[in-house]
Amino acid sequence: MDGRGRDMEKQPLHDKHSLAKDMTNHISSILFDDKSSEDSDARSVIHSVVEEAALEEPGSTEQSTKDLLPRDTHAAAGDDIPNDPNQEEGNMELQAKIAPAIGEDLYEYRVANEDLSSIDLANGMTDESLSDTNEFDGQFEDSLREIERVTKLSNDLAQLIRLAGPFNIELSPPPVPQVNPEACLDGAPPDVRMLIYRYLLVNPDLGEVTSISKHEQYGATASYGLSPAILVVNKKIHGEAMSILYGLNTFVMACSPCSEPSGSPPAILSPLTRFISGPYGSSSSIYGEASISHVKKWKVIISVDVRGFSAKELVRPSWSFWEACRALSRGSPRLVEIALIPKGVELNVFESDYQSLEIALQPLKILRGIENFVLRDTTPFEIPDFVDEDENALEFISQLQDETVLEVDLYNSATSNNPVERGFEMFNELLIYAQAFERSPMFRQAMSPICDERYGDVPEPALSGDDLHLYHQPSNPFQIDDLVHPIEAALRRAKALVRNEEDIPAFKNERDFILQYLERQFRNISAAHDGMLEFVKDEKVDDGFFDCAGDPDQGDTWPQYYTAMVLLEDYEASFQRESPLHIRASMHEHKKYYERLYEDFGVGKIQMEGLNMAIDKQNYAGFHAKFKSAVDKLDGQFLDICRARKSLFKWDPETLDDRRCDIHPQLYRSEELIVWDVNEPNLTPLTYEQHRWISSDQGDDAIGSQSGDGWDHSRCSAGFNADDDFDQYGATDEDGAQSEEGGSYLSSD
């Protein structure tokens, strides 16, 4: 096909006679051997067909191809002419030669169209601009030649289709090559796979500042030539390729000086976070980005320029550097290079504009376990282009001049494995625990502080009822202007302490206040849960109210129905947050609104009415189903609180033993819901005579007659009930007395 295309390019596109001649020669060369004389008749047929078709004027295509064929070939086109066996055999041979040619031509035509679609004719420029610019002349000529080539291929394909019509040849693309299942990446030797991963996933540019250039929208529009799609092939390849992508590449991260999240330029720049913290990102925080924790080699570039910082902000590190170090501390990097932009590089930045290194580098103190830690100045080629460089600077002065003691201190801290208190991790666990007490997802999300506030900027909660603000429009009742719920206010203060200053002692005081405030409600919920659980266990036995094999329509358990409702109402009421008077008054004004709001997140008034109606209408089966569903919903919320409580002190180093709080995490609590379809095991102690009878052959035969393994499974119990008439099994007790001590216990274990 390529040779045909080259020959056809020699002829003008508008010269139909040349096209017909070229098409004739081409098709003849495909279908026939030039030395063969047996195909001369067929060759003449093709010559006439192609020549007539090529010379045809637009709109005159009504003439059938078979009209151009000699009389002796009309039989193959479907005319009502006596069949000639010899002619049919010749047509079959001709068909066998034409079909591959059409398939090959169709394939090349598709490839050519794909090539053409990838060509940008003039990059959006007009014909006048192209003619005026020599730079685009060559590209334009190449595009024209490509258009001409595809046009000729299209004409060629059209002629072959017309030729195939009379012979009823089915057009189909070339057969897809058979895939060898053994020739897969999993079957390659490990060293070959690693070499392939290197070619696909390693790019040294990821460690250069050019990868986050402002001309590439800080990396958002940059292409790094990687193929991360290989990570999703299968679990084995994912594990192997991850170690190459995040282990061999060095990733650059540039932190612009700022006291709060910034959008232009972004506060934190990195190829990994270009869609998170970049101009098109949805968040300024990179703390929760999972990919950062996998990186093994980092190069972090920072500036200690504090121009524009307020007097309060001068005494704390840059927000961006804090955020970067928090993200790095979540992983286990082997190499961390901290490169400081030297003095004199930045335009109009004087000696007084630089922050003290002891303050600026304070976030590095939360790093631990780094094998290779380097603190140095940047080279001239490592300065990000968002920095305004002073081109007339005569010298660059190292930021680390006369800071040897600080260097050694930071190096020893970063490379050691000494315990460290990370306040931001402690706060996250505290926030999760506090949010577990709020059932509304909307109000729960609002409990997380979203702004950078200093300790003194957070208002104290208004706990008195002298000035009640009742609003006509329902809103978040826990955050009404300055009347903030004590928990929400304390959370904002706690976050300000760990996000901006890492004042761990002050944070622990706020944490203690929050936990003590929530402890009262936790005890109420726990007591209601334990009461419900005890009632269910007592009744989830043989012939009990919740007997898994019992009849829910039994009418002799009226007290249990009302007891169950009282316990459920107490359980539901225990989840209402403890709030000061002004919040309760605001919620009471819009009581119906908040009742509807919380309806889907608890049992709710409607479901309670449905349970009472089921009792009134004696719909016992419906009551049981709805009651179990309500208990499971409340149990799920309580278990969320218990799970969060167990992780409260996860980030408090045990060796320091400085929680400053006497709240117990209650790690012993079960995290399982009630299993309604299995009765509780019977652990009632047996008398000596009962135990002796069960151990005898007579007792074993009597009990074994009820079940093949010797246990009474029909009663959903592992042993005897203390209230059973023991004589029903054929055993007698001479004096009827029970053993007061030494009784044994039988259970399913």
Protein traits:
single chain, about 750 residues, mainly alpha, 4 domains, five-stranded mixed beta sheet, two-stranded antiparallel ribbon, 23 helices, extended, disordered N terminus, disordered C terminus
In this structure, how is the largest beta sheet organized?
5 strands, mixed
Average pLDDT taken over every residue: 71
How helix-rich are the residues, as a percent range? Answer: 40-55%
Strand order of the largest sheet: 2-1-3-4-5
Low-confidence stretches: 1-17, 31-39, 53-83, 114-133, 279-283, 451-473, 703-749
Biased composition (Acidic residues): 722-738
Region (Disordered): 1-68, 697-749
Biased composition (Basic and acidic residues): 1-24, 32-44
Describe the structure concisely for a colleague:
It is built from 23 helices and seven strands. The protein has helices at 2-9, 16-31, 40-55, 74-77, 85-117, 127-132, 137-164, 190-201, 235-248, 319-329, 357-360, 404-415, 423-435, 441-446, 486-501, 504-539, 558-573, 581-589, 591-598, 604-616, 620-646, 688-695, 697-704, and strands at 251-255, 268-269, 297-302, 335-340, 372-377, 479-480, 483-484. The strands form two sheets. It has a five-stranded mixed β-sheet.
